[in-house]
Amino acid sequence: MRRVTLLAMLLLISGAATAATESYTIDPNHTYPNFTINHLGYSTMHGRFGSTSGKLTLDRSSMTGSVDITIDAASVDTGMKKRDDHLRSPDFLNVGEFPSITYKADKAKLNKDGTGKVVGKLTLAGVSKDVTLNVKSMNCATHPFDPSKQKFVCGFDATATIMRSDFGVKYGLPGIGDEMQLSFELEAVRD
Amino acid sequence: MATFFDNPLVQSALLPFVVTFVLAGIAGLVRPRWRGLSVVAGFYLSAPLITGAQLLPLTSTRKILVLGIVGLIVALLLSRQLMDARRRYFILLLLVSAAATWVLWPVLLRANDLSGLFTLAASVVYVIWLVVLLDKQRQQASTQLLSVLILAAGTAIVATLGASALLGQLSGALAAASGGLLLALLVLGKGRDDDLLLFPAVLLVGLVGLAAVVYASLNWQSLLCLMLIPLVSRLPLTLNNIWIKLFVQLLIMLPMVAGAAYLAWDTGSDAYY
Questions:
Q1: Do A90 and B60 touch (CB under 8 A)?
Q2: Which residues of B touch A91 (CB under 8 A)?
Q3: Reported confidence tier of residue A5, pLDDT bands at 50, 70, 90
């Protein structure tokens, strides 16, 4: 009898642990990765990617999870068609050959307040490098506009700094800056 | 010194021109048949400065550079073989088809309709057109060289207007190297009109043109204009002075480049804004 009780308790504990890890799908309408880069020493130019997809897993009790984001490189938008076409060309993102920019982190761990650092693999223009995301905030709640109150959303604000030359994107150096500030404001809906 | 070699004008104009001119002069004294190789030498000295020295990831641009070396080996082998034109062109067609397929491979993999095959077919037609027509000019060295020079310069202009300065610079280096050899032929040459082994240069410029269409935003119409350039040598010009003949041919070729540039500028998105 004691064995059965012990087994039942173990099953309950493992079930609870599994249930704590939740799966989320990136909301493409509220997720737009941004970047800034120095332009010839004059000013800071901004750009963003209009199409992003991906999945997250999150255990809100232990604040652990994983990230798997895919950005459509061709969706780059700086507000000027000529510049965007140039950014898509082999000089920069080479979207004809590398249509996706991906970021993957299998073992993300955040602090209790939702901040922290996530080390993952960024693949840009066919080159993969470890990049640390600095997560500045995380907020999870039921969506206030959902009448069924079933839609549960988590949002994150994160930043990272990369050197584009590390990814083989060297056109225009050093005039056009090497250092890029990346900013990920993303929302994900619980599956 | 590093800053000097970082300058795009040095990389794609001064360096390949000077290196090719000097090497062509030396080759002209030692072994005139090898003068054409100076174009390849001048270009490949500049290319790593333009694209970077690493080979991976193996992008289309780097594949083109590898294919230029393959083209050089094939040109050397073909120059030693006595074979009829049909067999020679069949071998070149096979090589061009394989080269275009390799360069376009990422696009062909993603194409889920016939558009990929159409693009490949158009690419092969473009490159083989240039290769065969310019190969037919190989017994008129200076005319062939002028055609390669203008074709490479035209490709450099339209590739840049088609939003890739990288491809534009590579083609510019080919134009400068061709210019260096042409000057060497005219000033230092012994007036011999023999095979200059320009196949690798023609293959390179053809592949750069199609890469600018497929991977940047150059339109096909610009390349159609450039396809007219090799036809200029077929015009019945009875001019004995080589300088005057080349000048007249240049005047005929320039509107073709201007037309290609206009079409690229009108519909494209140049790399300077």
A1: yes
A2: 163-166, 271
A3: low
Does any CB of chain B come closer than 8 Å to the CB of residue A79?
A: no
How does DSSP assign A98-143, residue by residue?
--EEEEEEEEEE--TTS-EEEEEEEEETTEEEEEEEEEEEEEEEE-
For chain A, domains (ranges, CATH) are 6-190 (2.40.128.110)
pLDDT at A134 > cutoff 50 = yes
Instruction: Please count the residue pairs, one from chain A and one from chain B, whose beta carbons lie less than 8 angstroms apart.
Output: 68
Is the pTM here over 0.80, yes or no? Answer: yes
Q: B210-233 b/e with 16+ CB inside 10 Å = b?
A: bbbbbbbbbbebbbebbbebbebb
Q: Which residues from A are below 8 Å from B215, CB to CB?
A: 89-90, 94, 96-97
Are A85 and B52 inside 8 Å of each other by CB?
Answer: no
Q: Which of B52, B163, B211 is opposite residue A86, by nearest beta carbon?
A: B163
pLDDT (tens digit per residue) in A49-103: 999 999 999 999 999 999 999 999 999 999 998 899 999 999 999 999 999 999 9
By Cβ distance, the residue of A81, A90, A127 closest to B269 is: A81
Instruction: State the pLDDT at residue B140.
Output: 85
Beta pairing class for A52-59 and A64-72: antiparallel
**Residues of chain B neighbouring A83 (CB-CB closer than 8 A):** 273
Q: How far apart are CA A50 and CA A134, in angstroms?
A: 22
Residue B203 has pLDDT above 80, yes or no: yes
The answer to whether A127 contacts B215, with C-beta atoms less than 8 Å apart, is no
Residue B11 has what DSSP assignment? I
pLDDT tens by residue, B237-259 = 888 888 999 999 999 999 999 99
Q: What does the pLDDT read at residue B52?
A: 86
Cα(A65)–Cα(A108) distance, integer angstroms: 5
**Best mutation site among B7, B54, B59, B109 for testing chain A: the one with the most A CBs within 10 Å?**
B59
